[in-house]
Write a structure and sequence with these properties.
CATH superfamily: Endonuclease/exonuclease/phosphatase
Order of helices and strands: EHEHEEEEEHEHEHEEEHEE
Family: Belongs to the DNA repair enzymes AP/ExoA family.
CATH topology: Deoxyribonuclease I, Chain A
Strand content: 25-35%
Keywords: Hydrolase, Magnesium, Manganese, Metal-binding
Number of strands: 14
Radius of gyration: 17 Å
Oligomer: single chain
Number of domains: 1
CATH architecture: 4-Layer Sandwich
GO biological process, one term: DNA repair
Enzyme class: hydrolase
Helix content: 10-25%
Strand order of the largest sheet: 3-4-2-1-14-13
InterPro entries: AP_endonuc_1 (IPR004808), Endo/exonu/phosph_ase_sf (IPR036691), Endo/exonuclease/phosphatase (IPR005135), ExoIII-like (IPR037493)
């Protein structure tokens, strides 16, 4: 079973690249972020033509997440995170979608960026991470085999960025962001890519600006976190780097983990 994540940066603009990747790599489950379309505009029929069933949580012009499954219909279990801060009215962002497939629970995550900081966007990011951790703890307590995958917008350590100095003032690698991510790992979740690439140097994002792709100035912000039940089944994990270099590509590249059946 291969579970993959891909921040597609606009599903309509990248549809040919997305279908190309699905056909060439055939993940069992594919979680998409930044679909950037309202629900009625999601191109579900395009995926049905190649054997994928989809659920999605859209939003006009930005955000949006979707889960595709090969040959089976994802059974939705949650849309949006539990709201720990109802006074903030923060559930209008389409950032979390969760479903069961093939005996596995998969949560698709598009975590807030948090820039500029300091300010309300960074505070929102930290609150969202607190909500995610609380929900993850609930899944843990139920002993549900779970993968929480997607664009976390967190660079976990200095080894996960081409230049720590260049990104030092960015919300993606502030101590508060890193600490929130580290607390999830300390709760017992396994970072699949990091576990199999402990020396770092693996990027999942290259900016469109300043020749970042050509100079390999990237960083790792797309993560696959596994519960103990799935971590024990992990056989491989990786990054489909070449797709970042194709014409009209996303600025992210797909990440994936292989699990024993």
């Amino acid at each position: 079973m291969r579970i993959a994540s891909f921040n597609i940066n606009g599903i309509k603009a990248r549809l040919p690249r997305l279908k190309e990747w699905l056909a060439e790599t055939r993940p069992t489950v594919a979680c998409l972020q930044e679909i950037k379309t309202q629900d009625e505009g999601f191109p579900a029929s395009e995926f049905e033509e190649i054997g994928y069933h989809a659920i999605w949580h859209g939003q006009k012009s930005f955000n949006g997440v979707a889960i595709l499954a090969d040959g089976v219909k994802p059974v939705e279990t949650r849309r949006g995170l539990p709201d720990l801060f109802p006074e903030d009215g923060e559930d209008d962002h389409a950032r979390y979608l969760e479903a069961d497939m093939n005996g596995v629970r998969v949560g698709c995550i598009y975590l807030p960026n948090g820039n500029p900081l300091p300010g309300p966007k960074f505070e929102y990011k930290l609150r969202w991470m607190e909500r995610l951790r609380a929900h993850a703890a609930d899944l843990w307590a139920q002993e549900i085999p779970t993968a929480l995958v997607g664009d976390y917008n967190v660079i976990p350590e200095d080894k996960d960025v081409w230049s720590p100095k260049a990104m030092a003032s960015d919300a993606l690698m502030q101590p508060e962001s890193r600490d929130a991510y580290a607390r999830m790992l300390a709760d017992g979740w396994t970072d699949a890519i990091d576990t199999l690439n402990p020396r770092g140097g693996v990027w999942t994002f290259w900016d469109y600006q300043a020749g970042a792709w050509q100079r390999d100035h990237g960083f790792r912000i797309d993560h696959l976190l596994l519960s103990p039940e799935l971590a024990d089944r992990m056989t491989a994990a990786g990054v489909d780097k070449e797709y970042r270099g194709r014409e009209k590509s996303s600025d992210h590249t797909p990440v994936w983990v292989e699990l024993q059946d």
